[in-house]
Write a structure and sequence with these properties.
Elements lengths: L1 E4 L5 E4 L3 H7 L6 E3 L6 E3 L6 H14 L5 E2 L34
Parallel strand pairs: 1-5
Antiparallel strand pairs: 1-2, 3-4
Length: about 100
């Protein structure tokens, strides 16, 4: 995940994961999809951009994403893959019917 700036200074986010995109694009989210670039940008450009980027980065880091903050356009930066994969969550146990009287 890379946060950077557009030419006009607007924060942009380029995530490489659909899950990360869903985290940023929650219904109440201050981020939206820019239809021209397919990157994420703030709904309200007048908002405190630094705080918006910081809070989004913190949210993604709590979910285990590696986050980079760049001064330029986020597509100008390459995200290196993790050196070790994040383990998948353990599968849920199968659903079983409660024991009841025999028929």
């Amino acid at each position: 995940m890379v946060f950077g700036r557009d030419i006009d200074g607007t924060p942009l986010a380029n995530e490489l994961s659909q899950h990360a995109a869903r985290l940023l694009l929650d219904v109440e989210s201050p981020w939206l999809i820019d239809p021209e670039s397919d990157l994420r940008r703030p709904r309200n450009p007048a908002s405190d951009a630094d705080e918006l980027v910081r809070s989004a980065g913190t949210l993604l880091q709590t979910y285990g994403y590696e986050v980079a903050f760049a001064s330029g356009h986020p597509r100008d930066y390459t995200v290196r893959p993790r050196t070790r994969p994040v383990p998948s969550p353990a599968p849920s146990p199968p659903h079983r019917r409660p024991a009841g009287p025999g028929r």
